[in-house]
Design goal:
Layout (H helix, E strand, L loop, with lengths): L1 H15 L2 H9 L3 H21 L3 H14 L4 H13 L3 H14 L8 H9 L3 H8 L11 H14 L2 H14 L4 H14 L5
Helix pairs in contact: 1-3, 1-4, 3-4, 4-5, 5-6, 6-7, 7-8, 7-9, 8-9, 9-10, 10-11
Length: about 190
């Protein structure tokens, strides 16, 4: 319990600093070492709490992390995953939706929500979420292309699946798994696959 209180106080003191103060604090000499030490300590505490089954405390620390660093993809997905662990899919989805809404210009912010729906086999939702991200100036992560193409395929939209695999392979022509998936879709289009 003492360990949790110390971690909570440390995290809260960092979070509660006004943005201007936080910027000033991180620009002073040695700040990067202090910040790195704080990140490491919080990460170690989260792992320990998780391993001890203290999920509510781990969720609380991750929530503070997101307040501290709202664009931290790993913290956001960790929080969503933890909500999934305690069987709160409503909070899991809300975490992902909020992330996407906070950072609409970041294609990575769309993936967690899309993956949530992909795992639920709600492929139309995946398409609606990810399709626009392919047009962003910053291209999404490879997994966005993968689950989008698989979603098209499972919906029977083989032409769209093929287009998505081809777009992805322009970015990474050496991805053998993507080539195999593209070829499988081609076979379905030509009537040679199921």
């Amino acid at each position: 319990m003492k360990r949790q209180a110390i971690a909570a106080i440390a995290a809260c003191s960092m979070v509660c600093a006004a943005p201007a103060q936080l910027k000033e604090m991180t620009s002073t000499p040695g700040a990067s070492r202090i910040t790195a030490a704080a990140y490491w300590r919080i990460s170690a505490e989260k792992d320990s709490l998780f391993n001890d089954g203290e999920f509510p405390s781990a969720i609380q620390i991750i929530s503070w992390e997101i307040i501290w660093r709202p664009n931290d993809y790993e913290a956001v997905t960790d929080l969503g995953w933890m909500y999934g662990n305690i069987e709160r899919p409503d909070l899991e989805l809300a975490t992902y939706v909020r992330f996407k809404q906070q950072f609409p210009e970041n294609p990575e912010a769309y993936y967690p929500e899309a993956q949530f729906y992909f795992l639920k086999r709600a492929y139309k939702n995946v398409v609606a979420i990810l399709e626009p991200t392919l047009e962003f100036d910053t291209k999404p992560h490879a997994n966005s292309y993968r689950i989008l193409a698989h979603s098209y395929e499972r919906l029977g939209f083989y032409e769209r699946a093929l287009e998505t695999w081809d777009k992805y392979l322009l970015l990474d022509p050496n991805d053998d798994a993507a080539k195999a998936n593209r070829d499988k879709v081609k076979a379905k289009l030509s009537g040679g696959g199921s």
